[in-house]
Amino acid sequence: MITVIAKIELSLTGVNSLKEKRRILKSLLAGLKNKFNISIAEIDDNDILRKATIGAAIVSNKSSFGNQVIAKKIDEIRKRPDIVLMDYQTENY
């Protein structure tokens, strides 16, 4: 059994309040969780207005499948016009 985790740093351009940031992140996280059946949450930069760090994990029988799911998740984030993907790292356990 393999666990693939990702740490993703985002820039939220155009956000003017923490309430707006939370709304955007809630929508993003719920959509990714439902579409890809992964565990995902905001893990850092909670009180920084235009920055967010999220973590995601998937457990799989094959690392290739887990990495493929994470890659698709990254592609979905890149499609969002209100979010800029700044950086991400993945690790397999």
Task: Explain what the structure shows.
The protein is 39% helix and 38% strand. It is of the alpha+beta class and 93 residues long. The chain has one domain: TT1725-like (Alpha-Beta Plaits). The chain has a four-stranded antiparallel sheet, with helices on one face. The mean pLDDT is 94.
Question: Could you give a short description of this structure?
Answer:
The chain has 93 residues and is an alpha+beta fold.
Q: How is this fold's topology laid out?
A:
Layout: E1 2-11, H1 18-36, E2 39-44, E3 51-60, H2 63-79, E4 84-92
Antiparallel strand pairs: 1-3, 1-4, 2-3
Compute the number of strand runs: 4
Topology as H/E string? EHEEHE
- Residue share in β-strands: 35-45%
CATH topology: Alpha-Beta Plaits
The share of residues in helices is 25-40%
Our Rg estimate from Cα atoms comes to 13 Å
Indicate the CATH architecture: 2-Layer Sandwich
The number of distinct structural domains comes to: 1
Helices, by number, come to 2
| CATH superfamily membership | TT1725-like
Termini separation comes to 9 Å
> Overall pLDDT, averaged?
94
CATH class: Alpha Beta
